[in-house]
Amino acid sequence: MKLPRIKFGRPQQMAGLLLLVFLAECLWVVSRQHLSQQDYRYAECGREMWERPSPLAGYFTTCGNLNGDGTFAYRVAGLPLTVQRLVMLGADKLRKPENRLYAQGSLNGSTWEARHELFSVKYLLHLPFIFFAIWLGGGLWWVCRRLFGNEGGFFALGLYCFCPAIVRSAVTPNNEVLAMWGLYGLVYTAMGVAHAMQGPRRKWRPRIALLTLSLGLTAAAHLLAAIIGFVMAVVWMMYLAQRRRSYVMQILVFSAIGALAILFASYAFRVAPFSYVFTGGGARFWFALDGTRRFFLNTTNAPIVVATLVALLLYVFTRRCRYFGNTAPLIMVLLLFPLLTTQTVSQPWVWALPFLFTFVGGVFADVLEMRQRKMFLALSGTILLLQAVLCLSLLPEIAR
């Protein structure tokens, strides 16, 4: 199999620079944070998932059976600490028996009794979530650039990197950033599978495998996000597959079975805690505008709000802007912003943000090709500059 050539030209360098700025924002916030009780909970229960079963009979971890709360964030938080512990034990075994530090020490004892032996816990705990946020930013730029060109990709990525809600979700252990990462990837992977179905079958398999992995990891982060992603995958694939629509449900059924296997593996193949996926109510939701008001009435998001309003007006009144590439993310935004989970504490409106930036980036890319290019180029630059200033000024508050 011939691997694709990776070209790292000027556009990739500029996108990488924006993501480095985002990384610097997040690291600055983390450096001024103190470990909270929530941090310890994610680290402790995540390590228990990787290292050994819970000492509490009948429960998956000391956090309980996580009914409604995804396992993905716990495993992501606990993995670096578990790896560090194993490296310390492995290095200790290289010493002579009389010189070993942990032969009878705490690292061979209880999982969480070894916490004082670990170092850089704050960064090990937070960096994986920052990594997923950067990964999502890279995926957002790649999708927007493929659909709308360099200008649309950079505008969408700039809004993403200087959005306080994105930074806030990236610097604390939580399932929101993972659900956001998984849902965005799931939707656009489904579209990629539908496009690949127009070509030879040998190109289907890698994309179907990626679709299965996306669905499984999204379900491990948040069941509601996976259900929404699966339903919308059916819609978009049926729309795009055209003459190959008869294969869509077969692909999605096999992907769903594979995703269930991934989700079962996230519960260490234990049936009792896995059953709470179906009985815990993690996918229960209703409709409310609390998240919408929280985002659009926040003054720190004012430039993003202006860009959104301009994009909506252009979409309604400019025929050039009304096509599938802009309509699909707009529908996702309208679907996700009004959602409210009733069984778990989560923020589905955060999942809508990458789709919002995709929509805004696409519309602005379209109008930048019109006669009013200079005016909208100035508007785009002003919006990005103001949003960057507001976001950077808010970092000390996020770090509290």
TrEMBL record:
Q: Which UniProt keywords apply?
A: Membrane, Transmembrane, Transmembrane helix
Mark the transmembrane ranges.
123-142, 154-171, 177-196, 208-241, 247-264, 295-316, 323-342, 348-368, 375-395
Q: What is this protein called?
A: Glycosyltransferase RgtA/B/C/D-like domain-containing protein
